[in-house]
Amino acid sequence: MRIILICATPGCRFTNPSDAVVARYYQELLNFCWRGLRNREAALDLVQESYVRVLGVQDSSAPGAPAVREPRALLYHTARNLMIDQHRRAVLRQHDALDALPEAAHPAAPPHLQPEQALENSQDWQACVAAIDALPPRCRDAFVLHLFEELPHAQIAARMGISVSMVEKHIARGMLSCQAQLLQLHSLREAT
């Protein structure tokens, strides 16, 4: 990649003729960008980015490919598209400070991130863990292999040296134990 230096001073020479043609529009393009942005630094950045893109297209074109016939038009088109992109980004970033809004106008977090819901989820999880811990060891092992390691029943049976029917019974017992624990917890919540 080539570093682009735009010389606006008299006597500045370019080694590539197409660079000289493109550089000749520098001040004109800068004025165009300044009128659109009303910010000199932003206009300078935009012009520089336009030149980087246009000269990058010229450099990356295949040997023997036709040269850009209208470099001025390509520069203006590129600069205009960059201004549009910059304006879109600015619109997306425009928002009121959250501290300036009244409490009632603050956006609500999704339900699963609400403190009450997070507490309930944590309690549900702890209840299920307690139910699993209370299972007999072989039942717990089969249930954990099915639920957390997602092994099929046949593979669990082979690993544990039991029948597939027994694995199904262990899994059903684990599910019923978790459901009973959750029902008990939910009925306690509703009572309070």
Characterize the structure shown.
The chain has 192 residues and is an all-alpha fold. Helices cover 67% and strands 0% of the residues. It contains eight helices and no strands. The chain is elongated. The model is unreliable at 1-14 (pLDDT under 50).
**Helix amount:** 55-70%
* Percent of sequence in beta strands: under 5%
Counting helices, strands and paired strands, the structural category is: mainly alpha
User: What is the molecular shape?
Assistant: elongated
**Secondary-structure element string:** HHHHHHHH
List the quaternary state of the chains. single chain
Got a strand count? 0
Largest sheet: none
Distance between the termini: 69 Å
What is the overall number of helices? Answer: 8
Query: Which residues sit in consecutive blocks of at least 5 with pLDDT less than 50?
Result: 1-14
From the alpha carbons, calculate the radius of gyration and give it in angstroms: 34 Å
Mean pLDDT: 83
Question: What is the topology?
Answer:
Layout: H1 17-23, H2 26-37, H3 40-60, H4 71-93, H5 115-133, H6 137-147, H7 153-160, H8 164-191
Keywords:
mainly alpha, single chain, 192 residues, elongated
Summarize the structure.
The chain has helices at 17-23, 26-37, 40-60, 71-93, 115-133, 137-147, 153-160, 164-191. The chain is mainly alpha-helical and 192 residues long. It is elongated.
